[in-house]
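Chapter review: from sequence to fold.
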Amino acid sequence: MKTIHDALVALASRGWRQKATIGRTRILEHPDKPGVYIYLRGRPSSKLTGDHRAEIRRKANV
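The token string follows.
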């Protein structure tokens, strides 16, 4: 995973769905994890930062 788009594709294959978009922030939710949301801020072509990776690891347990 190098870009936000890559992360979205990888998370979608694990069941995460986009709930909303506010500006450039995407809010993802998982049907099996109510109340847990992943926030990805940036354009689809933006590189994943350490903060993005930490958010995904912590909430998606990937």
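Two observations follow directly from the output. The radius of gyration is 10 Å. The first strand starts at residue 17 and ends at 22.
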